Model the fold of this input.
Amino acid sequence: MLKFLRWAFLSIIMMVAILIAGREILFVGPVQTVTPLPTDKILDMHVHVAGIGAGNSGCFVSEQMRDSYKFDYYLKAFGVSRQEIIEQGDQLVFKRLAEKLNASRYVGQAIILALDGVIDEQGRLDKQKTQVYIPNEFVAAQTAQYENLLFGASINPYRKDALQRLETAYQQGARLIKWIPSIQHIDPSDNRLISFYHKMRDLALPLLSHTGQERSFHTAIDEYADPKRLQLPLSLGVTVIAAHVATTGENQQQNNFERILPMFKRFPNLFADISSLTQINKLGYLAKALTAAELKGRLLYGSDFPLINMILVSPYYFPLNLSIGEMRRIAEIENPWDRDVVLKQALGVPTELFVQNQRFFYSAN
Ligand SMILES: [Zn+2]
Done:
């Protein structure tokens, strides 16, 4: 017995020593030189909201999603519980978002994204196939009540009244149109969408479209999130922001990230956001995005809140880029936006990238 304990103890010591030595040898530090954070507060262009329909919000979540353990974690990351929103309404989520954002030292405003559903052959909402639905009306009305929340609309272009809805969203002050084609069943390369794209271009509304694999929902048609399908709106002059720079997944046996890179040269109206790139399932992608020559000046700051406030993201996932002291210091930052910004800064996200949204969303429209 004693012999075994001694053997176990020695093995553990050896393993720790190997890990420390390995880290020492492999340590690379930040992706590029760390620069200061901007003096003005940052705008976050990629923030989600949740709702179950409480308080007549018009939101709904499919049974499968609602019963999933993921949903409670998701709510917790917003700082609410199911019970609280049942009692106080989905409006509470906006209140918590505004409060948390208000407490942030570095981030001042955020675009809150609505989420349209799947549309049937008759051009109407298909409740059976829709997993999550967050209507524009609700997000427009709620964001209008808080100075630090901006409206991000979502319109499925297959709706019968899609053009009218674009006009309305524009009147309500929408900063962009958000799609997750793989769960909304939108094929961005479909020629039937041309008039929708023309209208977007005329209203100078950018399209923020999810690119790459989608794993936050129950099912997804990943082909629709192929970045190459965005060539149609791009060629028609629509400003497109490829969410997550098409990281993860592949189409036609080619990695999505590799598929999108050459498109930046061809289309000066193509941009991408860095949201989700610090998630544990995307390690290494932030470095790739920051160093790719094609992406210089084309990246925007997005957090993908509430995902940054979940176990998916932690400074401890970067032991080869950050010192132990840094990892600890960042993990101790309480505000989720500040933690996100400081983590990204420490990894090498430059000052210019953090300020890009101010120019993009305030002078473009
Ligand atoms: Zn997102």
